[in-house]
Amino acid sequence: MHRPPHEIELMQRALARARAAGDAGEVPVGAVLARGAEVLAEGENRVVRDFDPSAHAEIVALRRAARELGNYRLPGTTLYVTLEPCAMCAGALVHARVDRVVYAAADPRVGAGGSVFNLLDSPHLNHRCLVSGGLLNEEATALLDDFFDQRRG
Are 96 and 74 in contact (CB under 8 A)? Predict the structure, then answer.
């Protein structure tokens, strides 16, 4: 599949946020919310640092963009995230009316973008996100594998 160059650049930015999260002792997941090639907000996992179970990369980016734009609805946007969103994050993306979600690595344990559940594109919800996975999958998977290998000792 041919992708516009800005999509690769935006996922590379998400990977940089993921590396920052990993360096801080968080699970290395990063996200970038954009409208076209324009970055609206970035986020990385902050669960441990913020003592907040909801501080996943996607939620952090959504909160920042909503505050910046003065609106909790974010139509016309795409979220680039290094790991397939979980059910919590998928629900927030649907409620925010994000148009597209592009993820790098699938999450076969709790992925809600088609791997385990498909909340992002569910016909039962009032909004559906277009979903595509695999963009820079190898880099994202390597970051996660290295992080968990180090934690296991």
Answer: yes
Cβ–Cβ under 8 Å, residues 90 and 78: no
Q: Which of 26, 42, 58, 84 is catalytic?
A: 58
Count CB atoms within 10 A of the CB of residue 90. Answer: 26
Q: Is 150 helix (H, G, I), strand (E, B) or coil?
A: helix
Q: What angle do CA 119, 132, 1 make, to 5 degrees?
A: 160
Do 128 and 118 touch, CB atoms closer than 8 A?
no
Q: What confidence tens digit (pLDDT) does each residue in 14-56 have?
A: 999 999 999 999 999 999 999 999 999 999 999 999 999 999 9
Is position 58 annotated as part of the catalytic site?
yes
Distance of CA 83 to the CA centre of its chain: 6
